[in-house]
Amino acid sequence: MAADLAIETHQLGRIYTIRNRRERRIRREIVALQDVNLEIPRGELFGLLGPNGAGKTTLIKILTTLLAPTTGWARVAGYDVVREPHSIRPRINMVSGGEASGYGLLTVRENLWMFAQFYGLPTREANRRIEELLCRIGLADRMHTKVSDLSTGLRQKMNVVRGFLTDPEILFLDEPTLGLDVGAARDVRRFIREWMDAHPNRTVLLTTHYMMEADELCDRVAIISQGRVLACDAPEALKRRLQRDARLDIEITAPNSLTAAALEALPGVRKAVLTDVEGGARLNLVLEEDSVLPGVIQVLTEHAVQVRHLTKREPTLEDVFVDLVGRTLADSETGGGHGHGS
Amino acid sequence: MMRPSAHRYIGLSERWRAAWRSFRIATWLGWQIESNWTDPFLFAVYSMLKPLASAAILVVMYGVITQAQFQHPVFAYIYLGNAFYIYVGAVMTGVSWAVIDDREHYRTLKYIYVAPVRIPAYWLGRGVARFLTGSFAVLITLTAGVLFLRVPLHPARVDWPLFLLSLVLGVGALALMGLVLASISLRVAHHFFLIGEAVAGALYLLSGAIFPLEVLPAWLRPLGFMMPITYWLELIRRSLLGDAARAFPTLAGFSNGQLLGILTGLSVLFALVAAVVFQLCDRQARDRGLIDQTTNY
Q1: Which of A29, A194, A329, B233 has an alpha carbon within 20 to 30 A of B124's alpha carbon?
Q2: Contact between chains at A86 and B112 (C-beta distance less than 8 A)
Q3: What is the pTM assigned to this prediction?
């Protein structure tokens, strides 16, 4: 039922037209988002997982009414993002990671109070929530510190509080832990999970390129690459798709003339990724079944490569990503890598 | 293909409440930004020295050109025009500067936009603090003119009702012009720093602030007559100086009532223009993804 959907998109697309600065007639089109169909029910913590440039932020911008789509439509809280932005805005909030936004001349409390006022929150209630949320995220001792005196990580925490402060029906978190140290990122993840547990009717759309974050937090995950949603399901369900395969991580000595392509040529080897590491190499294999392994060992032996350590493991979201996109998420961001995925 | 929606419009009273809330909070924010960038002593010194330095440039130039004829009615005319032109930079440019400040400096424009904020009301609120600091600068400049340059300004002879009415109408018109500039700044991510200064600079020449419009080439004069600032400055001078304000012939044929009527009409026109330009620029900025686009210039 559409009435139960917090977010709904249909054939949503966005093309950016870039003009050449010197030759204004020369234009280039970049497809940022293509045919995105999503249905996110209320109460769900939904993750968008993909590398930088996959279209995650573009999708969030459209859903938060900052950017118009070029094709399709999107509805947030039942309202059309293009025609009814003023009906959507009181019901949503947004936090973007990796940026140092905020009025530096104001204190943390003043910044947060101001945004609470924009949403019509009474001052007494705003102050109560500010104190509570700052305590929970570990920023209470900085309440009266000017924002300009905060580190980037602490500013980011303040912005996370700003997003939750107005108790939005739908919250958009765009890479909320980007640029945070391990401890701060853990604090933020715990904070998000606790808030969702305490507010079961609220919806969160979270974008991330951290596999672990998506796996740990999200009820469902959409894997997005080059503007397209490639798969959408619960993390466990996504991983189950790959459980029929045997996944092996093998530490080997220097690979000499061994290539991933040579291994993938073997019957039963679905994927081989060879990565140089200090003093040797790491071989990630996906085999159709365990019985393929002796053939692989034989090829290693023929190339005078010795096995140092071998681990069989359960599939992860990273495996799902590699299976769908054809390369690791890290390689997707650098545009290449050592791996030779098929 | 657009899917039909239920079209649940926000009620009018809620829109007004949101607009008032946006204006009120933006006013508070603007004052915090204006008054907190340095310590109070430096702020006070800067607020006094800046307008005096600007006025001094004009006074020195006038003194050199006219061989120090500071008693001539033209001097008072020019001095007052220059003093009240401070409002143009403060209010008009101040309102539009909020876009640049929020987008480039504080990186908060997208969060303001995503919030239930009435953007034009928010921009106007951000201009209030600039109006207050601008008023202080105008007051300092006028006081210096009276004390040291014998500008013939006597409180007992001032037409206060006309002055206050003109001031309200004029500042309102400047704020509306600021809204037009703010909307254009929203739409133009690059080169936006130039817009406010370029327009304020051009209007200095086109609005009869320091010389009559007759000095301008004939093809430029209509632009001057289209600007509310031209009529506003004339009204301000007349209310403060009385007949001495008729030193420039440009608007001598108009009565105060006619000038007020023209100023009101132009203000209404600019209100309509501001509404249309905002709608247009807002839509284009969202179409092109410019609302949170920073240039790092």
Answers
A1: B233
A2: no
A3: 0.84
